[in-house]
Amino acid sequence: MKRIIECVPNFSEGRDHSVIDAIVAAISKTQLEGKSVKVLDVDPGEATNRTVVTFVGEPDVVLEAAFQGARKAQELIDMRQHHGAHPRSGATDVLPLIPVAGITLEECAVLARGLAERLYKELGIPCYCYEAAAFKPERKNLAVCRAGEYEALPKKVSDPALAPDFGPGEYNDVVAKAGATNVGARNFLIAVNYNLNTTSTRRAMAVAFDVREKGRKAREGGSLTGKLLKDADGNQIWIPGTLKGCKAIGWYIDEYGIAQVSMNITDITAVPLHVAYEEVCRAAAARGLKVTGVEIVGLVPKSVLVDAGKFYLEKQQRSLGITEDEIIKIAVKSMSLDDLKPFNPKEKVIEFLMEDEAEMARRERLVRMTVAGFARETASESAAPGGGSISADMGALGAALATMVANLSAHKRGWDDRWKEFSDVAEKGQAVMEELLALIDEDTAAFDRIMDCFSMPKGTDAEKAARAAALEEATLYAAQVPLRTMEASLKALPLALEMARSGNPASASDAGVAALAATAGIRGAALNVRINAAGLQDKAKAAPLLLRAAEIVKEAKALEAQVLDAVNANIGI
Questions:
Q1: Active site residue ranges
Q2: Is the dihedral of CA 521, 526, 527, 529 positive or negative?
Q3: 165 pLDDT above the threshold of 70
Q4: Do residues 286 and 311 touch, judged by C-beta distance below 8 A?
Q5: Closest listed residue to residue 51, CA positions, set 78, 28, 73, 26
Q6: 20 to 30 A Cα–Cα from 188, which one of 104, 240, 389, 512?
Q7: Residue 360 pLDDT more than 60?
Q8: Which of 73, 76, 60, 62 is nearest to 28 (CA)?
């Protein structure tokens, strides 16, 4: 899984668009080893004199882009001239890192601390570390780090108790102009509104009080109008709500003519969206109300919708071994995300927004074709796609058939108590199928790499050596890819065997064809391993590839025989 983080820096400029554009350009143009970030949103505020930029990418390039954005802000923003409605302490005021996929909050905290240290060492900008990146418990709260705002920095910088985590120890010209930056790591925050079948703000607020972590003020008799209750020290007593880390209020929306519970879910690992939705539904029903749908404000990681879809599939005792698109569709329909307006995951999911269509089309040229188009492309006079891609396709079809049998078995009348057994098989089959689909194009790309080597110059000894080294590397890769096809296809055979033995008897022949297709993919890929390994000059590198390929073929033939025995026993003639 690709590691993805989000960064949401807040810059202390919301009025001068030339400054804002320059900062955003510094971020968006950052390149690191061929990688870049994708800017998803730029939100300037006139009254706050503040701009929030949202961008995503792999961790190393996001850190570089964040640094370049802060460098440009330091260059163009003079905090001595800054005034706005929002609290602030620096030109780059806050710089949070947020895990999206393949990375933990703890890892983001380490990255945030490193970024803070670099901002000080290279730019002289003092930095406080907050939330998960905090060095001191009290500094988990951003408000503590930013106390007194920019105007308090002359005193804070030189006070050991209040000084930044990375700072000069004294107030200087750099601090005067740039201020201090608060660098942190936090979980992804989801802003979501729950639509209610009422126009009453008061009733919506009551539901919000029921579920938000802060809860409501305690009153005598538990009434809404009774006297406020205080403890022995005179402090207000609060009755906490049911959802940890959630903030919520109720309001009326003129545009839609309904009341909503508006919520921020600050820790989606502790309270996933579907859990919050179910709880708001429960609390609303207890007050005679109904949640008619959900409105997601901004963006969400793909996992939010996938987890929700799987949750509702499990409630229905349906197989989870379906495509990711189908799982997301279940989430959309289960929570009525399209209640107020159409919900397009391609416009709301971070990972989908990050996809470069041109790059995807290049990388997935073959798998995006129709079946007929793929067959005709294979039949053309071009050498690619060839046997390696066809072998990966056969393996993918074998995994797909095993998955189909599992899904049909999970949905078979009278087998309801076995749905989880078959769902587990289908999930494994889906994963194998996706792995092999990717290998269809990767095998053709491996062939193209070899062809590219033949066009390299060979006029000098140095050029000849470089060409030979590149060809050896490309040939090794071309042998490794079909071996990966073999390994992946081998994983489909135990699934086919399990379905032949215990799946829906009416689909026994499909389990048999699954095994035949997977084995054909393995044997075809083995030929590609052999022919490419034969082209390697370094025979020590070729030997383990050939050995492993022979082992897989032997294992596949034995599994195929077991599957066919089970299928024949099922068919009976």
A1: 86, 443
A2: positive
A3: yes
A4: no
A5: 73
A6: 240
A7: no
A8: 62
